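Dear colleague,

Thank you for sharing your sequence with our group. We've completed the structure prediction you requested, and as agreed, I am returning the results in plain text so they can be pasted directly into your records. Please verify that the sequence below matches your submission; if there's any discrepancy, let me know and we will rerun it promptly.
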Amino acid sequence: MNPASDRRAQRRITVGLVLQVRGVEGFGAPFEDTVPAENVSRTGASFYSTRQVDIGSELEITIPGHATNDFQTRARIVRVLPGRTDDERLIGIQFLGPRFHRIFISEGGS
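Please find the predicted C-alpha coordinates below.
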Protein backbone atom coordinates (compact mmCIF):
# COMPACT_ATOMS: atom_id res chain seq x y z
CA MET A 1 0.00 0.00 0.00
CA ASN A 2 1.26 3.47 -0.83
CA PRO A 3 1.56 5.46 2.43
CA ALA A 4 0.62 8.68 0.60
CA SER A 5 -2.73 7.18 -0.41
CA ASP A 6 -3.62 6.44 3.22
CA ARG A 7 -2.85 9.87 4.72
CA ARG A 8 -5.40 11.33 7.08
CA ALA A 9 -6.18 14.97 7.80
CA GLN A 10 -6.37 14.14 11.54
CA ARG A 11 -4.62 11.54 13.67
CA ARG A 12 -6.96 8.64 14.43
CA ILE A 13 -6.86 6.85 17.76
CA THR A 14 -8.28 3.52 18.81
CA VAL A 15 -10.88 4.05 21.52
CA GLY A 16 -13.58 2.17 23.38
CA LEU A 17 -16.47 4.27 22.07
CA VAL A 18 -19.81 3.13 20.75
CA LEU A 19 -21.40 4.68 17.65
CA GLN A 20 -25.11 4.77 17.00
CA VAL A 21 -25.43 4.69 13.22
CA ARG A 22 -28.58 5.39 11.19
CA GLY A 23 -28.74 5.24 7.43
CA VAL A 24 -30.10 3.48 4.37
CA GLU A 25 -28.52 0.44 2.75
CA GLY A 26 -27.69 0.54 -0.96
CA PHE A 27 -30.91 -1.30 -1.82
CA GLY A 28 -33.09 1.19 0.09
CA ALA A 29 -33.68 -0.48 3.47
CA PRO A 30 -33.27 1.86 6.46
CA PHE A 31 -31.19 0.64 9.40
CA GLU A 32 -30.12 1.66 12.88
CA ASP A 33 -27.17 -0.06 14.53
CA THR A 34 -25.05 0.37 17.63
CA VAL A 35 -21.44 -0.61 16.87
CA PRO A 36 -18.06 -0.21 18.54
CA ALA A 37 -15.81 2.37 16.86
CA GLU A 38 -12.63 0.92 15.39
CA ASN A 39 -11.00 4.36 15.60
CA VAL A 40 -12.02 8.01 15.85
CA SER A 41 -10.51 11.37 14.96
CA ARG A 42 -11.86 14.89 15.23
CA THR A 43 -13.15 14.66 11.65
CA GLY A 44 -14.19 11.04 11.23
CA ALA A 45 -14.33 7.46 12.41
CA SER A 46 -14.39 3.87 11.24
CA PHE A 47 -16.40 0.85 12.31
CA TYR A 48 -17.18 -2.69 11.16
CA SER A 49 -20.61 -3.42 9.71
CA THR A 50 -22.46 -6.09 7.76
CA ARG A 51 -24.64 -3.43 6.13
CA GLN A 52 -24.52 -2.99 2.34
CA VAL A 53 -23.65 0.72 2.11
CA ASP A 54 -22.24 2.81 -0.71
CA ILE A 55 -19.35 5.27 -0.73
CA GLY A 56 -20.82 8.77 -0.77
CA SER A 57 -23.91 7.79 1.24
CA GLU A 58 -24.74 9.85 4.31
CA LEU A 59 -25.33 8.54 7.82
CA GLU A 60 -26.55 10.02 11.08
CA ILE A 61 -24.03 9.39 13.86
CA THR A 62 -24.44 9.68 17.62
CA ILE A 63 -21.63 9.03 20.08
CA PRO A 64 -23.28 8.72 23.50
CA GLY A 65 -21.64 10.90 26.13
CA HIS A 66 -21.82 11.30 29.84
CA ALA A 67 -25.16 12.66 31.09
CA THR A 68 -26.83 14.47 28.21
CA ASN A 69 -23.73 15.44 26.21
CA ASP A 70 -24.15 13.16 23.20
CA PHE A 71 -22.14 14.07 20.11
CA GLN A 72 -24.42 14.09 17.06
CA THR A 73 -23.54 14.75 13.44
CA ARG A 74 -24.07 13.64 9.88
CA ALA A 75 -21.30 11.77 8.11
CA ARG A 76 -20.39 10.70 4.60
CA ILE A 77 -19.04 7.24 3.84
CA VAL A 78 -15.60 7.75 2.32
CA ARG A 79 -14.17 4.24 2.44
CA VAL A 80 -15.50 0.67 2.39
CA LEU A 81 -12.86 -2.04 2.86
CA PRO A 82 -13.06 -5.79 3.45
CA GLY A 83 -13.77 -6.69 7.07
CA ARG A 84 -12.71 -9.52 9.34
CA THR A 85 -15.22 -11.93 7.76
CA ASP A 86 -16.71 -12.33 4.28
CA ASP A 87 -19.96 -10.62 5.38
CA GLU A 88 -18.32 -7.71 7.13
CA ARG A 89 -16.87 -4.41 5.91
CA LEU A 90 -14.74 -1.72 7.52
CA ILE A 91 -16.62 1.55 6.96
CA GLY A 92 -14.71 4.85 7.05
CA ILE A 93 -16.74 8.01 7.58
CA GLN A 94 -16.05 11.74 7.47
CA PHE A 95 -18.06 13.95 9.81
CA LEU A 96 -19.99 16.62 7.89
CA GLY A 97 -21.08 18.65 10.90
CA PRO A 98 -19.29 19.48 14.16
CA ARG A 99 -15.86 18.07 14.92
CA PHE A 100 -15.47 15.56 17.74
CA HIS A 101 -13.34 17.06 20.55
CA ARG A 102 -14.09 15.22 23.77
CA ILE A 103 -11.49 12.45 23.88
CA PHE A 104 -8.36 14.12 22.60
CA ILE A 105 -5.35 15.00 24.71
CA SER A 106 -2.56 17.24 23.46
CA GLU A 107 0.06 15.17 21.64
CA GLY A 108 2.73 17.16 23.49
CA GLY A 109 1.40 16.23 26.95
CA SER A 110 2.46 13.26 29.02
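Summary note from our side: The chain has no helices and six strands.

Kind regards,
the structure core
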